[in-house]
Write a structure and sequence with these properties.
mainly alpha; single chain; about 400 residues; 2 strands; about 70% helix; Ammonium transporter fold
């Protein structure tokens, strides 16, 4: 039965998830060289427009309409056909189908642009448009169907509350593939050019993440509160753990470390937010900081030019979160029992799904960026890297002075 409280809450949650896109633009924009800040921010903002067009044309239908062999949806909802204002989302019959559609759209907008931080300072905007289109069509839309739309992973019993697989593992390992294909920058980053922008971006991301996770309950009930509380706890525990680690290593406090740690905690709790206890969320937050910090350090030692640590924070955060869901999941809250409650089979399924999605995202992203490069050169020339992409492609700059 239609529930006005749940439907209203979900519209607010959709708005909260949307604010994460400009939040990510500020977060990434403050971290890149100032000569590339406009390019970075516009890659993020552009997704809000272009992804919406693709989503209403065919993306929502491929992800959430009638399942075809466990692989993809049909075109029943293409161009939002067959959805009336009174049509209810069949998953719970409490919210409208249009509300569900626009909420899921916000996930589709932000997922591919998580990758932009990895190949910062290198990709042409024209190539980015092609790559964004291909990535959504061949990675995000199918993944959303496999996990949330009744596809083969859902039928197998894989759980992902708010996007550990669909969002963070896919974007993080896709980002790593893009880094390997494009290669290192000719002129490495000179440092985070605006810490205030990074702080504003972090605040918006953290704020919006309550809609991201709590909204994934798709209604208002006790589990919504569990997801909300777990989101706050994991972010806080991870942020403090990361900052303390940095102080232990260097003898200096790090504002950027605190903010990076919070994002790692948020990414890692995402798949488990509504499935684990608040006590487990504390452990997940600490684990998130440790794993992501180790992976960022490993990436640096290997010399991989993942400019803004997308793989270490989002990719390994989402991957780790799925594994931890397989350990700490509790049917007393929602979903399946994890390993500590005797759910060995569930743990193995979650682990297998994490490995499968990571490999799929990496391999297919590498192929898609190769195709993009054949359609239009993906990387800017060395001259553009030196002068900055803002001047080369936009004739606009972050600062007028």
């Amino acid at each position: 039965m239609f529930n006005t409280g749940s439907d209203g809450f979900m519209l607010i949650a959709a708005a909260l998830v949307f604010i994460m896109t400009p939040g990510l633009a500020f977060f990434y924009g403050g971290m890149v060289n100032k000569k590339n800040a406009v390019t970075m921010m516009m890659q993020n903002f552009f997704s809000a427009g272009w992804t919406t067009i693709l989503w209403v044309f065919f993306g929502f239908s491929l992800a959430f309409s009638k399942d075809i062999s466990g692989v993809i949806g049909d075109l029943h909802y293409a161009f939002l056909a067959n959805i009336q204002p009174g049509t209810l989302y069949p998953g719970n019959n409490e919210i409208s189908m249009l509300t569900f559609m626009v909420y899921q759209l916000m996930f589709a907008i932000i997922t591919p642009i998580l990758m932009t931080g990895a190949f910062a300072d290198r990709m042409r905007f024209k190539a980015f448009i092609v790559f964004l289109t291909l990535w959504l069509t061949f990675i995000y839309f199918p993944l959303a169907h496999w996990v949330w739309g009744g596809g083969f992973l859902a039928k197998w019993g894989v759980e992902d509350f708010a996007g550990g697989l669909v969002v963070h593992t896919s974007a993080g390992f896709g980002a790593l593939a893009a880094v390997f294909y494009l290669g290192k920058r000719k002129f490495p980053k000179e440092g985070n050019h605006n810490l205030a922008l990074i702080a504003v971006g972090t605040a918006l991301l953290w704020f919006g993440w309550f809609g991201f996770n709590a909204g994934s309950a798709l209604r208002v009930d006790a589990d919504t509160a569990v997801a909300f509380v777990n989101t706050m706890e994991a972010a806080a525990f991870a942020a403090v753990t990361w900052m303390l680690w940095d102080y232990w290593k260097t003898g200096k406090w790090s504002a950027l470390g605190f903010m990076t740690g919070s994002i790692a905690g948020l990414a890692t709790i995402t798949p488990a937010a509504g499935f684990v206890s608040p006590q487990a969320a504390m452990v997940i937050g600490v684990t998130a900081a440790i794993v992501s910090h180790l992976m960022v350090d490993y990436k640096n030692r290997k010399g991989w030019d993942d400019a803004l640590d997308v793989w270490g924070v989002h990719g390994m955060g989402g991957f780790t979160g799925i594994i931890l869901l397989g350990i700490f999941g509790s049917s007393a809250i929602l979903g399946s029992n994890g390993l500590i409650y005797g759910g060995t089979t569930f743990f193995l399924k979650e682990t297998a799904a994490a490995i499968f999605v990571a490999i799929y995202a990496f391999v297919v992203t590498y192929i898609l960026i190769w195709i993009t490069d054949k359609i239009t050169p993906a990387r800017v020339p060395e001259e553009a890297e030196k002068t900055g992409l803002d001047e080369y492609e936009w004739a606009e700059q972050m600062y007028a002075f």
